[in-house]
UniProtKB/TrEMBL annotation:
<keyword id="KW-0645">Protease</keyword>
<keyword id="KW-0961">Cell wall biogenesis/degradation</keyword>
<protein>
    <submittedName>
        <fullName>Transglycosylase domain-containing protein</fullName>
    </submittedName>
</protein>
<keyword id="KW-1133">Transmembrane helix</keyword>
<comment type="similarity">
    <text>In the C-terminal section; belongs to the transpeptidase family.</text>
</comment>
<dbReference type="InterPro" id="IPR012338">
    <property type="entry name" value="Beta-lactam/transpept-like"/>
</dbReference>
<comment type="similarity">
    <text>In the N-terminal section; belongs to the glycosyltransferase 51 family.</text>
</comment>
<dbReference type="Pfam" id="PF00912">
    <property type="entry name" value="Transgly"/>
</dbReference>
<keyword id="KW-0511">Multifunctional enzyme</keyword>
<dbReference type="InterPro" id="IPR036950">
    <property type="entry name" value="PBP_transglycosylase"/>
</dbReference>
<keyword id="KW-0378">Hydrolase</keyword>
<feature type="transmembrane region" description="Helical">
    <location>
        <begin position="15"/>
        <end position="39"/>
    </location>
</feature>
<keyword id="KW-1003">Cell membrane</keyword>
<keyword id="KW-0121">Carboxypeptidase</keyword>
<dbReference type="InterPro" id="IPR001460">
    <property type="entry name" value="PCN-bd_Tpept"/>
</dbReference>
<dbReference type="Pfam" id="PF00905">
    <property type="entry name" value="Transpeptidase"/>
</dbReference>
<keyword id="KW-0812">Transmembrane</keyword>
Length: 755
């Protein structure tokens, strides 16, 4: 201290003496300040042990059976990759624009800090880059700044410099680059270069071109301002700046730069938001099943989290087939919606039925919230009708923004037809396509796994199968005449077709293929309700069905996925197969954690011979029965068996199709059970549900990759089965029965509209 005082005393001008005293004091305070940060007085600074063991929160990925990434579950969208997967030009672009002296400094680049102070801040030269090194930026990625106040920036910067130095002591340069590129944010909750490459260019990092790599690196300065989806021109300018720094650092030639800077961004944007993209209903069902799996694993002491553990989930879904199924759904449901609305015209219930509109409104979240707050019905409906705000309204043609009330929105969406559609491998139960509804953003309810609807005539094959199991011969004839059943409380089912069919006697095959209601009930009466219900249970129907005669016409409510499971019995000699969605679950490094196999019922629900008979009957449904438009309208010559279904008042339309390697089930209807199709011509299964399958099969027929499905042929039935079915389809009653028909016959209960 005496030496310092002696030196200062020799400085004659007082102001210089005070200046140097100030400088010395500032340096002392700076050392104390930095030391206090280092010691944790301004908040803890991670030590080397902590920095050696940090772990990423990694998104879980969902893949199709053919290994196409279709979705992610995450808190932060991140997929870490190794250094070997970074193309050299990506690293060159990063170092050129962010940290030219990366391989020379030890975490902090003091010459660059000085350069920033002069060139970037004072002269406004952005091409000079920033003052933070990649190591410092990694420190910020790992420990984001919690407080954005200006007064804390200096503390944060010094902390990052300390952490950067420690990182350089622990990791080599390649490891630092790896950690940085795996943690850096690209906006939109996207972290790491792999997730960014997939999102913006639909490619893996290792396949990024020079210009694509430069675009992504360019985003790091301002992830929103240089987002190529939002600001393509600004992004292009920034990309070209990155390319120019690569020229400056001799990573690319001037000639290459001149060619690359002319290119468009070439965006191929894929948002892995769970509400959009391919198969959102399928991905949501996979998520639910994955949560159940992790819950079981965690109970066994294995800690897995689907949002942070980086699981890879390989599913059964066929990527191309799902695309075609969704295209077919749009092609069919758009025009069907238009026909549906036109059939009602100005008298549509969503326009005129005030009681129904209020009933639907009471199911809404807006109504329930106001009711919970103690408002009366009158006050609630006044508020829901009067208060208007801007809303985005969806239709099959477009999305439009309008000033609407909640009641306006409710009425708009009341009229929407919805659908559920699934395709399975009938031998294994693997789900190949899954469409749970028309629009996941607007209608989250899944009509495959959640919705229970009356299944109409798609239940009739179970009745006929039970009859065969009870020994009733397939060439047994049943009269189509309407009968009032005294033993069934006076119930009198009727048909929706020509009244002349009352004078016809149908074989079982013809009765099923033409879906004659009166025949189905008579077959069930002869078989027994309990026997029918017992068989349905053996075939995989888990729902509790009503023990009533109307069950023959499909009045029981069943989930679509259960109906599909039951129909697999016909393809497996009476043994049903459980539909399943997940094949394997692995770690991020592809270590197997779980695998799932087909689950086939142990015991056959019916004999193999009776299964053959039923398949022949259902082939007749396609060739000459209620589903014959498969042949006449859609010109499909594939081997197909099937069954249509339409429920009371045309509220549910169904179609089931079976082929050697494909089982397909489709339902179409409205979420609000109070509304049905206006008439049978629009709402019958053959018109409302069948076309989704027919359009899909037409597309598959044109693609050779589906030859194993489209060109597959049913095995020929045994000679005995052919003999058992060798009979006239119809026998007519005599002339006198028609002449003396009683026109005043009492009919106490009808189920018109069912096929």
């Amino acid at each position: 201290m005496q030496g310092i005082k002696k030196i200062l005393s020799k400085i004659k001008p007082p102001f210089l003496r005070y200046f140097f005293v100030g400088i010395a004091g500032f340096l002392v305070l700076t050392v104390i300040f930095v030391g206090s940060i280092y010691l944790g007085a301004w908040g803890s600074v991670p030590n080397k042990k902590e920095l050696s063991n940090f772990q990423y929160q990694v998104a879980s990925e969902v893949f199709t059976a053919d290994s196409v990434l279709i979705g992610k579950y995450y808190l932060n969208d991140r997929q870490p990759i190794t250094f070997d997967e970074f193309p050299e030009h990506l690293l060159q672009a990063l170092i050129s624009i962010e940290d030219e002296r990366f391989y020379e400094h030890s975490g902090v680049d003091y010459p660059s800090l000085f350069r920033v102070g002069i060139k970037t801040i004072l002269l406004g030269d952005e091409s000079s880059g920033g003052g933070s090194t990649i190591s410092q930026q990694l420190a910020k990625n790992l420990y984001p700044r919690r407080d954005r106040k200006q007064t804390n920036i200096v503390v944060d910067k010094i902390k990052e410099m300390i952490i950067a130095g420690r990182l350089e002591d622990i990791y080599d340069k390649n490891e630092i680059l790896t950690h940085y590129l795996n943690t850096v944010s690209f906006g939109d909750n996207t972290f790491g270069i792999e997730s960014a490459a997939l999102k913006f260019f639909n490619t893996r990092t290792k396949n990024l071109s020079v210009e694509q790599a430069a675009t992504l690196v360019g985003m790091l300065k301002a992830t929103y301002g240089y987002n190529p989806r939002i600001f393509p021109e600004k992004s292009r300018e920034r990309r070209n700046l990155v390319l120019s720094t690569m020229v400056k650092n001799d990573f690319i030639s001037k000639t290459e730069y001149d060619a690359l800077k002319q290119l468009d961004i070439g965006l191929d944007y894929r948002d892995y938001d769970y509400s959009s993209g391919l198969a959102p209903y399928f991905r949501e069902e996979v998520r639910k099943q994955l949560l159940e799996w992790t819950k079981t694993q965690n109970e066994e002491g294995k800690e897995y989290n689907i949002y942070t553990s980086g699981l890879k989930v390989y599913t059964t879904l066929n990527y191309k087939m799902q695309q075609l199924a969704e295209q077919s759904m749009v092609e069919h449901m758009g025009p069907l919606q238009s026909d549906f609305e036109k059939s009602y015209g100005k008298n549509a219930p969503w326009l005129t039925d005030k009681n129904l509109i209020k009933t639907v409104a009471r199911r809404s979240t807006a109504y329930k919230n106001l009711k919970k707050d103690g408002f009366t019905d009158d006050e609630i409906f006044d508020s829901l009708q009067r208060t208007k705000r801007k809303m985005t309204i969806t239709s099959w043609e477009e999305e439009t923004e309008k000033e609407l009330s909640v009641m306006d929105s409710i009425q708009h969406y009341m009229k929407f037809l919805n659908t559920g559609s699934i395709s399975l491998n009938p031998k294994t139960g693997e789900v190949l396509t899954w469409i749970g509804g028309v629009d996941f953003k607007q209608f989250k309810y899944d009509h495959i796994s959640q919705s229970k609807r009356q299944v109409g005539s798609t239940f009739k094959p179970f009745v006929y199968t039970a009859a065969l199991e009870q020994g009733i011969e397939p060439c047994t004839y049943f009269s189509a005449q309407e009968v009032e059943y005294e033993n069934l409380k006076g119930w009198s089912p009727s048909n929706s077709g020509d009244t002349d069919e009352a004078y016809l006697n149908y074989s079982m095959e013809e009765g099923l293929s033409k879906s004659v209601n009166t025949i189905a009930v008579k077959v069930m009466e002869k078989t027994g309700v309990d026997e029918v219900l017992a068989l349905a249970k053996k075939m995989g129907i888990e729902e509790r069905l009503p023990s009533e005669p109307s069950i023959a016409l499909g009045t029981g409510e069943i989930k679509l996925i259960e109906l599909a499971k039951a129909y697999t019995s016909y393809m497996n000699e009476g043994r049903s197969v459980e539909p399943f969605l997940i094949k394997t679950i692995t770690t991020q490094q592809d270590s197997l954690l779980a695998s799932f196999e087909p689950k086939k019922s142990e015991n056959a629900a019916f004999s193999a011979e009776n299964g053959q008979i039923m398949m022949e009957m259902m082939k007749s449904t396609i060739n000459s029965g209620t589903a014959s438009r498969i042949r006449s309208t859609y010109k499909l010559s594939n081997d197909i068996a099937g069954k249509t279904g339409t429920t009371q008042n045309n509220k549910d339309a169904w179609f089931v199709a079976l082929s050697p390697n494909l089982l397909h089930v489709t339902w179409v209807g409205l979420d609000h059970h109070e509304i049905g199709f206006r008439n049978t011509s629009i709402g019958q299964g053959a018109n409302a549900a069948l076309p989704m399958y027919a359009l899909l099969l037409q597309k598959m027929n044109k693609d050779e990759q589906f030859n194993h499905i489209t060109r597959a042929r049913f095995p020929a039935p045994s000679g005995r089965v052919q003999e058992m079915l060798d009979c006239e389809p119809i026998k007519r009653d005599g002339f006198f029965k028609r002449l003396f028909k009683n026109p005043n016959k009492k009919k106490t209960r009808k189920f018109k509209g069912q096929d």
